[in-house]
Design brief:
This protein is 27% helix and 27% strand. The chain is an alpha+beta fold and 723 residues long.
Length: 723
């Protein structure tokens, strides 16, 4: 089994063990009343044995989890193991002998009156109750406290366990017991002053004490919840503080006035060519080529207008908001823009509300395939259509004869490839070069099947692959936000591109002669379906070549996926600087948290949800080794803004092919990635899961440079919501 499956087994065992302990405790309590019932005692023995077995099985999983990474078993080993092992051993030693004696037909144990519970019964009940309470506490550690529990939360947890045992002791076992044969007194004997006799009065006081302990436990649990709720509410309207130190809080430079993010605009040459674009965000009703229609938020089209530039040119993009009431921004996904141009509401700017505008201006300093999208309420905004493509060309390198961009997107259940949910047809001359730029603009991973030719993956996340090899018979898996550039030589037959996220959409590259006549028709092929295919034909089914409407059943489930870790050829390794190397661990998990004051089963980073996740604080020039551990059952495409990262290893395996440089790292369940980030772009940057629903539920944090601050706020009067 892989790590993700082991974690799932551990969770199931923890839940079943807790249930078995609870039922066993109830049955042992019941077994002490009246004559022994063999079937009840047998069932109690069975449940007790299963509870012990499942608890021990959890411990047996720990070595395998630790082998994957210490962070898969950290709190399970240091906290949960002793928390559950000691009560489980006590319960086994006290409960099993007691139940076996109750099952026998011989005389009752010594120190017990026939037919009445005694010390052995009391000892067994308290032991099993403690095991049940500890098992529930172990679940609370998993679902509530997380991998980095604060000391006070552990103290609360231990108090709740001890309080449960104390209540059981006080409520179930009074000190003074009336012998079985003794007649009941007509009324409690009174003492001078009207008080009860010592035995019966103590019973009443113990009942009151049990109620008091229960009340204190309830107040403690409620107070802890209120404290957590206040923490989540206090973030609204909070300003991002400047990082003043790093390396454990040691300041390495004199304290000076902080630099505002708005001043980090980069350097722009005076004589650079300016590429000016205007984008207007609006709400509209969209009708797709299939005839399906839906309400959308767009920048005027789906995807938004394609933006292109060449290296060295200046991008100048004016954003206007016509009527999107939630507000909009422009974030340049994967492009290392200056911080002021990053487009994150509440961190680098205020959201652009209806009737407002903002101009983004930056130097096109890196070539490749990227995309843009809103970073204000983006979980909804991007899903509804506020996204577009962004490509920067290198003028010193030859361009492909046919160069197309395909953005895969799910628009409310309607799968799109580019702008169509049906056929999109392009023409290419056989023997000519073709480049297809694949962009996953969705929040879920996508798998692409290119059929009809061998191909190469020329670039990943905008970075060229070193000496890519030809690929056939493999899928391309692209995590949310990621990109791949595919190149091939056009064959004399058509090439099709499909995605598992857009079942009814297909991109077709049809062969054509240099003068624009379909190649098959030029050969006299009477079956040719496209007599004259333009550079991009209309997205109308009857204009499409003769291709099946959908991929063959099961092809996406059975075709292997290309592993980029071993693709391409390695280059001479760049040594990691020996100085200023930092190490940070990001444990991705799920716990019950308050998000915007609402209790949710949230996605967390290091046990906290945004904006309560501690920031990674760096100084310019630092090198940070980041270890990302996914303990959930879902993939998390982690995206650090303003930076690319180099992959050092995945699950302990280093890349054997081309260096893998990414801006969106798709961390699958049970994965452990080690990455290298060079702090060379000052600012305050988001680092978040690009499944935008996960980000909206807390899986975000900040990368903050020393001495940089922001006056923009989360929420507040500007209604900033970065996710």
């Amino acid at each position: 089994m892989n790590i993700s499956q082991l974690l799932a087994v551990d969770l199931v065992l923890a839940i079943l063990a807790a249930g078995a302990w609870i039922v066993a405790a109830w049955m042992v309590i019941s077994s002490g009343r009246g004559p022994a019932r063999p079937r009840v005692v047998d069932l109690a023995l069975l449940l007790l044995g299963l509870a012990v077995l499942m608890t021990a099985a959890r411990y047996a999983l720990l070595p395998a989890l630790v082998a994957g990474s210490w962070w898969f078993a950290s709190e399970r080993t240091t906290i949960s193991l002793p928390l559950t092992a000691i009560p489980a051993a006590w319960a086994a030693m006290a409960g099993v002998p007691y139940l076996l004696r109750r099952r026998n037909t011989g005389p009752p144990p010594s120190r017990e009156q026939p037919g009445l519970p005694g010390r052995t019964h009391e000892w067994a009940v308290l032991a099993i109750v403690s095991a049940a309470a500890s098992a529930i506490a172990s679940l609370a550690l998993m679902f509530v406290l997380g991998p980095f529990p604060a000391p006070w939360t552990l103290a609360v947890l231990l108090f709740l366990v001890a309080g449960t045992v104390m209540i059981a002791r006080l409520a179930l076992f009074p000190v003074f017991q009336v012998p079985h044969a003794a007649p009941a007194p007509p009324s409690p004997p009174a003492l001078p002053g009207g008080s009860l006799a010592p035995g019966r009065g103590l019973v009443h006081r113990r009942t009151t004490a049990a109620a008091a302990v229960a009340g204190l436990m309830a107040c403690t649990a409620l107070g802890s919840g209120v404290f957590a709720w206040l923490g989540s509410r206090s973030s609204d309207g909070a300003v991002i503080a400047a990082a003043v130190g790093h390396h454990g809080g040691v300041t390495t430079a004199p304290v000076v006035a902080p630099t505002q993010v708005t001043s980090l605009v980069g350097e722009i040459p005076d004589n650079a060519v300016v590429r000016h674009y205007e984008l207007t965000a609006r709400t509209e009703h969209i009708t797709l080529p299939s005839g399906e229609s839906t309400d959308a938020w767009t920048f005027g089209s789906l995807p938004g207008p394609g933006i292109e530039a060449q290296l060295g040119e200046v991008m100048e993009v004016e954003l206007k908001n016509q009527d999107v009431s939630a507000g909009v921004t422009l974030h340049w996904h994967g492009y290392d823009v200056p911080n002021a141009m990053d487009g994150v509401a509440g961190a680098t700017q205020d959201a652009v509300m209806p009737g407002q505008s903002m101009t983004y201006r930056f130097l096109a300093a890196q070539a490749g395939t990227y995309w843009y999208h809103t970073h204000q309420d983006s979980a909804e905004g991007v899903r509804k259509g506020l996204y577009g493509t962004f490509v920067v060309h290198n003028p010193t390198l030859p361009r492909a004869d046919t160069d197309i961009v395909v953005a895969g997107h799910d628009l409310g259940g309607l799968g799109l490839l580019g702008s169509s949910d049906r056929n999109s047809v392009y023409a290419a001359v056989p023997g000519s070069s073709v480049r297809v730029r694949l962009i996953n603009t969705d929040s879920l991973p996508q798998r692409y099947l290119l059929d009809g030719t061998a191909f190469k993956v020329a670039a990943v996340d905008g970075t060229d692959v070193n000496q890519p090899q030809e690929v056939t018979g493999k899928l391309l898996r692209i995590g949310a936000g990621g990109r791949m550039d595919v190149t091939f030589t056009m064959p004399e037959s058509q090439v099709t591109l499909r995605s598992d996220s857009a079942a009814s959409a297909v991109v077709v590259l049809a062969p054509s002669s240099p003068d624009g006549v379909n190649a098959d028709a030029a050969k006299g092929d009477a079956a040719a379906k496209v007599p004259d295919v333009p550079e991009k034909a209309s997205d109308v089914p009857e204009n499409a070549p003769d291709v099946p409407e959908k991929a063959q059943p099961g092809v996406f489930a059975t075709t292997p996926v290309l592993d980029l870790l071993h693709y391409g050829e390695p280059v001479a390794a760049t040594p990691v600087p020996a100085e200023n190397v930092r190490e940070e661990v990001l444990v991705l998990d799920r716990q019950f948290r308050f998000v915007d004051g609402v209790p949710r089963y949230a996605f967390t980073v290091n046990g906290a949800s945004y904006p309560l996740v501690p920031s990674i604080e760096v100084a310019e020039g630092d090198t940070v080794k980041m270890t990302i551990v996914n303990r959930t059952a879902e993939p998390h495409p982690m995206h650090p803004h303003g930076h690319h990262v180099q992959v050092l290893s995945r699950n302990g395996v280093a890349p054997s092919g081309s260096p893998l440089i990414l801006d969106t790292v798709d961390v699958l369940p049970g994965d452990v990635w080690e990455l290298l980030l060079h702090a060379n772009n000052p600012g305050i940057w988001m680092d978040h899961c690009h499944n935008l629903d996960h980000a909206a539920e807390g899986m975000m944090m900040l990368l903050k440079y020393e001495g940089v601050s922001s006056d923009f706020v989360h929420g507040g009067h500007s209604h900033n919501r970065p996710e």
